[in-house]
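Journal club prep — side note

Before the paper discussion, L.F. wants everyone to see what a predicted structure for a comparable chain looks like in token form. Sequence:
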Amino acid sequence: MPSPPLAPDDGPIDLAHLRRMTLGNAGLERELLTIRSRVPRARTLLRSARIALLAGRVDTAIANLERAFTATPPLSPAEEAIGRRMLKRLKFADGPSKARQV
């Protein structure tokens, strides 16, 4: 059985499922949608890339970093600099052993 992704997917929200889980409470639906929109997606992807790297999943780390640069809300300038350095080291590493030292 494949493991779930380290970062949540950008897929659309299943509104029928949301209505069932909130028992049709419109206020609760709005609250959940508001909370989801406030999650700093780019930061989540940056952290997921670090976790993937620690797990030895270099390809996943690279994919999450690349997605983090285009996610909204965007990374702070400092976080983006960290992510770009990390990505550069991963892409130019000779192998997983060097990539893990990022």
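L.F.'s comment for the group: Residues 41-99 form one domain. Keep this in mind when we get to the figures.
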